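Our consortium's second objective concerns turning raw sequence data into structural hypotheses that experimental partners can test. To show how far this objective has progressed, the report includes one record in full. It was chosen at random from the queue rather than selected for favorable results. The single chain below, 485 residues long, was entered without modification.
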Amino acid sequence: MAIITKKTYPAVGTGSQSSTTVFTDLGIEINNQDDLDVYVTKTTAGIAANNGLRIKHYRQNSTSPLDDTHPQVGDTTGLYSPALTHTGGTETLNNYLISADNTTITFNTALPSGAIVTVERRTRDASSDYTSFAGGSTIRHTDLNNSAKESRFTAQEARNKSFELESKLFGGELSDNVNIGGNLTVAGNTTFSSTASGTTLNLSNVLSVAGNALFYEDVTLGNVAGDKVYINSRIASNIVPENSSINLGQSGSNRFGSIYGTTLDTTSNTTVGGTLTTSTVSSTGALNLTSTNNGAIKLNYNSNQIFAIDSTGIVVDDNILPGTDGTYDIGSNGLEFNDLYIDGTAHIDTLDVDGNATVAGTLDVTGNTTVNNFECHNVKLSSSMITTSGSTGTLTDTAGNITCELTTNTSSTFTLSRASNFQSNKSINFFIKGYSGKTIAWSGVTWVGGSEPTISTTKWHYIKFIYVAGVESGNLIGHSLGDIG
């Protein structure tokens, strides 16, 4: 029959332990009450560092503080574990008394709810703790029986401890496998070498390593998909996969949240299912941005969208500026854009139109205009648009006849000529604002009256040029009746 040498009561306020001071039915056989160690474990101790640790209380009729004389304070022998601290607060020991029949423990003050009381027999084994016989003295049978009982108690405690260790380490009988049902705390380094590869270490609870833990060869964490690995510290080395087939995260719902890094360097395609926010993107090959399910590709600056590609095309919400003035083109000679829509002003140094150009509104030209094979309908050009030698003016077209309103400058002669592709059977009507001493010079023209007309002072003069059947002729038709300003 097994002999009980240790008992743990239910937590105060649970099960059969309704009392906060009285603990009955001890059930441990003793010869001396000093052979019992009584421990109390509190969730919240007076000193935070002692929370959840069992603390030995004294057999006396009053409370006492936990101080540096307590056997667990600063203990390095392992005889009284775990080690405690007496600093960082005030810890009061409730302390206790044992009934005369050794069955009931009564604490001096109430224990808090949830406190756990553990009682363990620890038979003193010093040579002077029990019966000693002096030379020539009488030996009583009681003394002999007590001495034998104390020896038996010590053996019982050792046997029960070995059973407890066997259960904790191997989960039953002694075997090659080590099974730790509680917490394993390693204060120093723990090394599992390859010589132990034939055995199994099963941890059903928590492995706490206060020092360094070194694992050699292959290491497997978890054996089913539901197992989890928690990393609360910082990783101080590179994480290098065995090969490029190893993934970080998994397709579907097993994805990481946010990834914070300084550089993303990939050698194959990178797929971003949501929004990619970055300061710099560079690629040694082609940089392809692909959006699926009719999603848009957007570029933002300071949280403002400036560029987007969607089903309608390229949408720009800001200015488009070249890196260098007058250097880069839009389109090329072999790759031309189709239509150009501008709702504003087009500032162009040179406009080269290969085909037809249609202006639905007003075309204002502030500089000189050179036109080859010019055909115009209902067009008027403002001053300084038509330049001939010695004159400037405006041009209109009415029923196929071109009318020019010329304003003289400081030159004394208007020198005019017919373009080689001027159509036959056409005429040009000139209205010339006269100044004193000005003449019209037109090479190859036969003038009515035999000579170039002279322009009178301060009047509008009407001159008609006709080109019929290869013959050019000109005539001063008349002038305004009155002076002009």
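The partners drew two points from this record. Residues 141-170 form the longest helix (30 residues). Helices lie at 141-170. Both points have been shared with the crystallography group to help prioritize constructs.
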